[in-house]
Write a structure and sequence with these properties.
By secondary structure, this protein is mainly α. 79% of the residues lie in helices and 0% in strands. It is built from 3 helices and no strands. It has helices spanning 3-23, 27-52, 56-86. The protein starts with a helix and ends in a 13-residue tail after the last helix. The model has no long low-confidence stretch (mean pLDDT 87).
């Protein structure tokens, strides 16, 4: 397969994730769409690294995965605390975190 197919797949996955972030109101679904967008960026980074013949893109993709893992921990903790307080995982209920 040529790298163009991987880049097209990456663009498609990023578009699906962006539409999901903009359209959905459930925090869990929005969170999964953000993860989908991060994975599409990883796919494009690895594709460009393979085209270039270097390991820079793969190293950057590894760091993106590390940051995404930390994001999962913090994001799910926030979503869990909002769900416990409001009994809903709706994004509209995030005003709970205001002063």
């Amino acid at each position: 397969m040529t790298p163009e197919y991987y880049l097209l797949l990456s663009a498609l996955l990023f578009s699906i994730g962006a539409v999901g972030v903009l359209v959905r109101r459930n925090a869990i679904v929005v969170f999964m769409c953000i993860e989908l967008m991060l994975n599409s960026v990883n796919l494009s980074l690895i594709t460009f690294a393979r085209i270039d013949g270097s390991l820079d893109g793969q190293v950057m993709a590894f760091f993106v995965m590390v940051v995404a893992a930390a994001e999962v921990v913090v994001g799910l903790a926030i979503i869990t605390s909002i769900f416990r307080a409001r009994r809903s995982a709706s994004i509209d209920d995030t005003n709970l975190l205001k002063y």
